[in-house]
Amino acid sequence: MNFSSDNVSPICPEILAAIASQSDSSALPYGQDDETAKLDTAFSQLFETDCVVVPVATGTAANLIGLSNLVSPYGGVVCHHEAHINQTESTGVAFFGGGAKLLTMDGPSAKIEADRLDEFLSAQSNRGIHAVDPECVAITQATEFGAVYTVDEIHAIGRVCKTHDMRLFMDGARFANAVASLGCHPADITWKAGVDVLTFGATKNGALAVDAIVLFDKTLRKKTEKARKRGGHLFSKHRYLAVQLLAYLENDLWLKNARHANMAARLLGQSLTSLGARMVHIPQGNELFVRMDDDLAALLRAAGIIFRPWPAVGPGAYRFVTAWNSPLEAITTLPGDLNLA
Amino acid sequence: MNFSSDNVSPICPEILAAIASQSDSSALPYGQDDETAKLDTAFSQLFETDCVVVPVATGTAANLIGLSNLVSPYGGVVCHHEAHINQTESTGVAFFGGGAKLLTMDGPSAKIEADRLDEFLSAQSNRGIHAVDPECVAITQATEFGAVYTVDEIHAIGRVCKTHDMRLFMDGARFANAVASLGCHPADITWKAGVDVLTFGATKNGALAVDAIVLFDKTLRKKTEKARKRGGHLFSKHRYLAVQLLAYLENDLWLKNARHANMAARLLGQSLTSLGARMVHIPQGNELFVRMDDDLAALLRAAGIIFRPWPAVGPGAYRFVTAWNSPLEAITTLPGDLNLA
Amino acid sequence: MNFSSDNVSPICPEILAAIASQSDSSALPYGQDDETAKLDTAFSQLFETDCVVVPVATGTAANLIGLSNLVSPYGGVVCHHEAHINQTESTGVAFFGGGAKLLTMDGPSAKIEADRLDEFLSAQSNRGIHAVDPECVAITQATEFGAVYTVDEIHAIGRVCKTHDMRLFMDGARFANAVASLGCHPADITWKAGVDVLTFGATKNGALAVDAIVLFDKTLRKKTEKARKRGGHLFSKHRYLAVQLLAYLENDLWLKNARHANMAARLLGQSLTSLGARMVHIPQGNELFVRMDDDLAALLRAAGIIFRPWPAVGPGAYRFVTAWNSPLEAITTLPGDLNLA
Amino acid sequence: MNFSSDNVSPICPEILAAIASQSDSSALPYGQDDETAKLDTAFSQLFETDCVVVPVATGTAANLIGLSNLVSPYGGVVCHHEAHINQTESTGVAFFGGGAKLLTMDGPSAKIEADRLDEFLSAQSNRGIHAVDPECVAITQATEFGAVYTVDEIHAIGRVCKTHDMRLFMDGARFANAVASLGCHPADITWKAGVDVLTFGATKNGALAVDAIVLFDKTLRKKTEKARKRGGHLFSKHRYLAVQLLAYLENDLWLKNARHANMAARLLGQSLTSLGARMVHIPQGNELFVRMDDDLAALLRAAGIIFRPWPAVGPGAYRFVTAWNSPLEAITTLPGDLNLA
């Protein structure tokens, strides 16, 4: 059982079938094909609002291109210190943003809190020509520490952004896990709360390689498409991005996969707790952060279970990530199996 | 029959099978998997020299990242005016190259000629701090106009580059078609001629989405990998890039597909000629450029044949591109079928 | 007599006096001082329209920052192949423009012709996501080859720009020489013809180091000021830029200096012609391009006259540039003095 | 008395005389003149080591260009959170550094402490391809809070940098004030401690507009000169930068001016303390940070004394900056004069 990340999982059958379905036909390149033509409608129906979809092959590309729409080369992007864009995307924000700077703040479970955001923006804004003015706020749903913003929390952040005339970006690499956890409508935590651009992750949740940049501000389409092309992210065989996304939405596969992963995380949390581990955060999506003693860690490893230390949440902490294909039964029987072994 | 480009073709069966083969297993992300580990060896065997392979999903990304290794932000890249990097990759060279500038020259069939390159470099170099000094030469094999550099021509270019202390880059989006056309060893037209970095195209020739940046200068590995990450081009499920490339090399699939496409182009050229079209260039790879009168163009279109006007090679010119799956028989019988219709 | 460029000349007395006048007082930094406060009004009066002035210390900075307002990172700037921004400003346009690309055309005396511009823009625009769309046209007044656009020529260019929805930029490093040559009002060849941004040169024409970015589109102020700061071009002791410009405008010093330089060029042209040189272009501003045999060139050099070969206008060509302080009498008597020597 | 910054002061007489001395002669442009030719020797004598000098007109340009030599587009620059490059230079570091990122730490009086730097570098380095590796450490001497690193402190930082294979940059906008305060040799706190690049400020200390990028690593000359040109920072009338610097070094004017400013700060500190203000830091250079009640602040303001609140050092704090021309007697008699008023 490999819990080192959800991206260790393979492509899921529905998406493989969608790819295979395109094996006998020709199609116009660069997004002029029939499958791509369905995307805007499919996502607009999902979100119950007109929106524009620009797919790319990686979550980092989706974040960097999506975000670059919302900040000038002289401006700042406010994010949590632990945000993927700050910790794990190299100097990509400045690269795609023409120099734009990350302005980081803290908060529990890698969440930004609306009140502190309000203070931060008040302190950082309008400091004159020498300083970097915030222009955009970026949040991650679910967060890098496995937490999920509530509907109210996101609306509160949206209101603060509106007050300070900030754009609002959401890194949704694990958006499906967040929606599955909240049981809300996807609109409730996005455009209805003021989100301008969402990256809607599929790669970690069963796709081969596709994340969608969802533009609720439809005026951003042209700029986004130009940035995608210039960045080398426009696929020639674009239909292969499109069919992955269409299959991902069809019959709520995205939610089905995410619910499975979330369930696996809950069950794994119970199993690990019963073995003596302590939760660092209450697991809300498909990520678990636990503390455990060296003996337990060694025992798990000896049983072939793969997971990673995660010092960012504190000394002695480990991260376990479940996926669409995590084996629920083996997770449930883990304590017994280990004791028997 | 769709000849508008080779990228309208679907994924080929061998590569689909390779992707499908990864459906039941977990693998470490970001290139730490077992399949990726085989790439350097596979390409080193193919090229008969130690080289480093960094795969990305698009040919534009391969070109832009590969090239950015060979030029400083203050330097120039010499290329043909018709080069893909000049005509068809937006402002990508400056983006990935930190401002690096394209310095264009002319030449027949979109080829750079060694003698004129020598003159160009002599005239453009060492013009002082205000000017942009050339630092790198970029050629395309096969060229954007369907021509193929001979082994001697590339060696001559390599010698000029060495004389002027220029790095040499090769855009090999259709490298397979060039090798199939020349019947040479891939080493003969790359590192043996002084090529520092090659982009080895697979997407147009049967893959879903993968082109390999091949570094014959192995010291460029770290910088290339950093540029790939920063550009959002590092796949999490990296094995899916790797298995495409491995399948592409296995049993010389890359050559088999290219030979098919080249053969289709030759046959199509015969068929079109017999119908009254005139070749603009002798077809050497899988691209045909022809002139024909409006009646013939209309006749072909009425028969469902798709192709594109290509004014860059002259007024009244059209481009036909064949692919790994072009129907040889239907191409051969085209004149008769049209006359019958 | 040093005719290698106008920038070999020293600071003129009026501007030195203006600098010296600030030696005993304190002043707020970064443009908040009283002298800077006068700039917008002074230039608005000169141009007879409301405009915004952002001064910087070099002509290259003025061009690069001014131009960066008018083009996106994905767009092209149309200019003459010989334009200073293309030949003599390194990779600066891409640097300040976030990757923006120069699209060059030809034309006599380094001028862009309106008809050919119209054709060029028609051919280059709307070529799809892969290509670089022109977004801005940049002209130089007077041109790099010493020619001066007529009022009608600039209005014709302005109309073409309007038709194609292009912004219009004017590099006015030698704007004063052009106005002095035309005898027109400065408004006639700028905003009345559709110029959005002008760089108004002073450094070559008597100042120590200051060129003004003049924004006829006043909405560009904030972006220009941010670009200036980020580029390290915002002076702390900003009043020293301001007083140079104010002295330069006062009593039409800018025109007085330019008329002197233009007169010197005319006289020098007569003297050189009488010695056997041939004009390449009719001198309109303060630059002369001539052809002469080696004996005459040697004779001039032996007499201590400094000038430069200028192969860009053709083999055997030389450039002579006069300035605000060129010695009119010595220029006039040159033929006789050489013959006596 | 204007203590809002040292850049409110005018040009000092010696430097004005140096500028005026160039009023009657011609000189080759762009640094090919005789005055510029003296710079490397003059600074090499001052620092008692061979070094290269590249002058620019602003301190921000000096920092951004100097620093851009020492970090790649994928790398990080470690600096104090209060560093000028982090707080007051817009997004310039990323702009000139091609995306390079600031990695900030804390420390007393805006100083980086060697021990904590060692820990920081250990924690931040080698975190893999996704993270930004530190490549350079930047310190400010004197710091933004008016403190001066001791010779030992800088050597300790230099040793940590060497251990971690980091380059070392020093922002010396107020380097003269630091040397005057320490009474050391300028070599002691620069190259002898491992500093690769220093910006040697003159603008705040009597010049019109010039700061020198001093390259102790002489291999950086070409890259620095290219970056200067591309950034629009290469003066055509370059001798006017050179003569300012030469006059600044002659007869130790730089130290004379700095000693005056430092003395003024000490005296001002005594005067303010006697009036009831409390020092936040012990003044070591020419900056004072004090706390005082509203009555005293109002009294000072009513007497025409200009100074600024400085919340970065804490609530209720004010900054006073002295300069080469601060009136020592009026500062000394301030308490008495105020009481009389």
Automatic annotation (TrEMBL), chains A, B, C, D:
Domain named Aromatic amino acid beta-eliminating lyase/threonine aldolase: residues: 3-294
Gene3D superfamilies, A to Z: Aspartate Aminotransferase, domain 1, Type I PLP-dependent aspartate aminotransferase-like (Major domain)
Keyword Disulfide bond: no
Lineage: superkingdom: Bacteria
Lineage: Bacteria, Pseudomonadati, Pseudomonadota, Alphaproteobacteria, Rhodospirillales
Pfam families in the record: Beta_elim_lyase
Record text on subunit structure and interactions: Homotetramer.
GO biological process: amino acid metabolic process
Protein name: Threonine aldolase
Record-stated family: Belongs to the threonine aldolase family.
Keywords: Pyridoxal phosphate
A Gene Ontology molecular function term of the record: lyase activity
Co-factor requirement: pyridoxal 5'-phosphate
Origin species: Thalassospira mesophila
